[in-house]
Specification:
The protein is an all-beta fold and 326 residues long. It has no helices and 30 strands. It has strands spanning 4-6, 15-20, 27-32, 37-41, 46-51, 58-64, 67-72, 76-81, 85-91, 96-102, 107-112, 116-121, 130-135, 140-146, 149-154, 158-163, 172-175, 182-187, 193-198, 202-207, 216-219, 222-224, 230-232, 235-240, 247-251, 256-260, 265-270, 277-282, 288-293, 308-313. The strands form eight sheets. Strands 1-30-29-28 form a four-stranded antiparallel β-sheet, with no helix packed on it. The chain has a four-stranded antiparallel β-sheet with strand order 2-3-4-5, with no helix packed on it. A four-stranded antiparallel β-sheet has the order 6-7-8-9, with no helix packed on it. The radius of gyration is 19 Å and the shape is globular. The two termini are 30 Å apart. The model has no long low-confidence stretch (mean pLDDT 94).
Length: 326
């Protein structure tokens, strides 16, 4: 196993999201159920700044052009400007479950359990920020933006694909090939498709219309139990390597797996984290992987290890796909 260390001063309650900065290799944003948003320097193992301006659990956070944004159970979208002060950009009628930032239009996207997707001009002041509000048929569970594409995973297993340049209707509507609720959706770095994970120990690799590759799904994050029955764990989080385009999954089994989507193979299996893996992200260079180990309450209230964030050094070839055998 390559080297890793634990971040100092982690959140005190469930870690909901980890995000490395899109260009700065060391800045790491973390949202959590203790109502805080934190900014760390992963390289220096240091808590740089934090804010406590949400009134309830924070479910997602994302970097913007000059700071960060966050949203959660208090239904408010907050901008954290220059990591020094916050202001409210807008709000939803239900809990905010997912945020994405599209840098080309300074546009913040928010998805909610109120069954709406909203687009905000992140620079606008005095309540004039709302650009678009789209009704969707179910609660939004997860979102992923890349370039001009946005993938939105709904309760009820639907996946909507939007072009963020013309936000009127989805360009594709899919039903996930997985038979159980979606936990996470992530667009491929190529933009040719997406990876979806479910609560029932499965992952699907799906391609958009026009791609020449075929879709497939596989079982993962399972442990053999008695009588040939597997213990099946939710797959909570997915992250793509920015250079090699392989991806990692994190499950409630406390393990992280690294996958090669083209060759349909598992490359690595990292075990031994204290509890469920709730969030993962690679930094921009792909030489660090942030791992949130945070109990995700599949088994209800029980004693569990404290929340922790691990920074794992990735060797240069560790995430590289194996060459195909001819």
């Amino acid at each position: 196993m390559s080297k890793q260390f634990e971040l100092l001063q982690p959140p005190s309650d469930g870690i909901s999201k980890l995000r490395f900065h899109p260009t700065d290799d060391t800045k790491l944003l973390v949202s959590s159920w203790d109502q805080q948003v934190r900014l760390y320097s992963a390289q220096q193992n240091q808590l740089v700044a934090s804010h406590h301006d949400h009134r309830a659990a924070v479910l997602d956070t994302v970097f913007g052009s000059n700071g960060a944004f966050s949203g959660g159970l208090d239904r408010r979208v907050l901008a954290w400007e220059s990591y020094s002060h916050t202001r409210e950009i807008g709000c939803h009628d239900g809990e905010i479950s997912a945020l994405e930032y599209v840098s080309s239009g300074n546009m913040l996207l928010s998805g909610s359990w109120d069954r709406t997707l909203r687009a905000w001009d992140s620079r606008a002041q005095d309540g004039a920020a709302l650009i678009a509000k789209l009704d969707v048929e179910e609660r939004i569970y997860s979102m992923s933006a890349r370039e001009t594409l946005l993938a939105v995973a709904l309760a009820g297993r639907k996946i909507l694909i939007y072009d963020t340049r013309k936000f009127d209707a989805p360009i594709e509507v899919r039903e996930s090939s997985l038979k159980f609720p979606t936990r996470c959706v992530k667009l491929m770095p190529s933009g040719l498709g997406f990876v979806c994970s479910s609560v029932e120990g499965r992952v699907s690799v799906e391609y958009l219309n026009g791609a020449t590759k075929s879709n497939y799904a596989f079982k993962c994050h399972r442990q053999p139990a008695e009588d040939n029955v597997d213990l099946v764990y939710p797959v909570n989080t997915v992250a793509f390597h920015p250079v090699h385009h392989t991806f990692v999954t994190g499950g409630s089994d406390g393990a992280v797996s690294l996958w090669d989507p083209d060759n349909k193979k598992r490359l690595k299996h990292y075990q031994g984290y204290p509890t469920s893996i709730s969030a993962l992200d690679f930094n921009a260079s792909g030489n660090m992987l942030a791992v949130a180990s945070s109990y995700t309450y599949e088994e209800g209230e029980k004693d569990h290890p404290p929340d922790s964030i691990w920074i794992k050094a990735m060797a240069e070839n560790e995430a590289r796909p194996k060459a195909k055998k001819h």
